[in-house]
Write a structure and sequence with these properties.
Blueprint: H1 13-26, E1 30-35, E2 38-43, E3 55-59, H2 66-69, E4 71-73, E5 78-81, E6 97-98, E7 103-109, E8 112-117, E9 122-127, E10 133-135, E11 140-144
Antiparallel strand pairs: 1-2, 2-3, 4-11, 5-7, 5-10, 6-9, 7-8, 9-11
């Protein structure tokens, strides 16, 4: 909701309650919700850990889109696999040329295998994850030049 072209000073309390309930329901320790440049992050700490604020609102700094920089980011939480099957060669190797839409890796989330494809043509400049590595939403997986 915007008031006079400005965002309200505090996020919607009902949204925070819903996100907190989702944390409890799923067993996650952190969840982030974003619309445009407004982000709401709700986190809980395990028992015995120092308490953190239950929610924060952060204005994202203006920047160029990650895709323009060649960063391939994880669109979900899951486990990254660099090859289609155990023992198979990886989808891509460092230095390989890729085309837009070419599969780069797989992220398994809730027993579903999700292909992550190149968002643009280029050369694989860096592979920043290992095979079978857990990844979070927004983790940079690869850089394409």
């Amino acid at each position: 909701m915007k008031l006079g072209g400005r965002s309200p000073p505090f996020p919607d309390a009902e949204l925070i309650r819903t996100l907190a309930a989702l944390l409890s329901e799923t067993g996650l320790t952190e969840i982030e919700y974003a619309i445009g440049d407004r982000r709401i992050r709700v986190a809980r700490t395990p028992a015995g850990a120092p308490a953190a604020p239950p929610a924060t609102v952060v204005e994202a700094p203006p920047s160029r889109p990650a895709n323009a920089a060649g960063a391939v980011k994880s669109p979900m939480v899951g486990t990254a696999y660099l090859a289609p099957q155990p023992g198979d060669p990886p989808f891509v190797r460092l230095g390989d040329r890729v085309t837009e839409g070419q599969p780069l890796l797989i992220i398994e989330a809730m027993k579903v295998m999700n292909q992550i494809r190149a968002h643009r043509p280029g050369r694989v400049a860096q592979i920043l994850v290992a095979d079978a590595q857990p990844v979070e939403y927004g983790t940079i997986l690869m850089l394409i030049e």
